[in-house]
Amino acid sequence: MTNKYYKEDIETVVLDLFHSQSKPEHRYASFDYCFNYFQDSTADEMESDKQKACLQLGFYLASWGMLRGSSFMLQKSIKHYIPLIDYIIALKREDHIIWKIDVDTYTKQNIKALIVVYNEVKCLIIGDEGSKTHLTLVTKILLGIFGCIPAYDKYFTDSFREIFKDKYRCGFRSVSTDSLSCISEFYIDNRDSIDRLHKEINTMSFDTGQLTANNYTRAKIIDMYGFAKSMYQS
Fold first, then answer.
1. Quick check: is 3 in a domain?
2. The domain containing residue 90 runs over which residues?
3. pLDDT tens-digit map of 121-179
4. Which of 72, 118, 154, 166 is most exposed by smallest CB count within 10 Å?
5. Could you tell me the CA-to-CA distances from 93 to 35, 44, 123, 160 in Å, in that order?
6. Does any domain span residue 4?
7. How far from 121 is each of 29, 31, 42, 46, CA to CA, in Å?
């Protein structure tokens, strides 16, 4: 049976993007430094230096376009991230499933847990200020810290709306059971390519510029594919 959402160009597209930006000074390396920090730091380390945790997250978001123009976060200092850092510290790595979720484990239970964390992060970072930009902002936060979900920015969502144009409930306009289930379906139909890339691509160390032991998650691979297909190849 043919996999409906199979794409033969995933490895080419993702590797082209990776090699074009895999330089220590490139703005996209800010993802690597942020992800490494939160994956490798203990709760005690984050607790003892919250300013460092805020700076890691804040500079990644700045590099990824969340502090430009009239954006909501442009008006905030890094102190604004403290409640979110406290929340991340409270999500005990050994107990909370969010640290283990990737698209290969998008079960109903894990999707539900991911949506709960999304909504809690949204509340902490947006509050009652009514920002309408939470979809891109919060998914970029979740990607940069946990690697559990692609960033729902314009490029990714345009690509995946096109891929899933036959599914009217997969508009990728919210983090929902429907959109996450579509991402899971995309992964299943392209498992071999995505798993190979997941095993092949590692993050870059800030200190040495060399590769670390942290692999790009499958969600990050899918994020790169969706981003590149719309940004560079549309």
1. no
2. 10-231
3. 999 998 766 555 689 999 999 999 999 999 999 999 999 999 999 877 788 999 999 99
4. 166
5. 14, 12, 21, 31
6. no
7. 23, 18, 20, 17
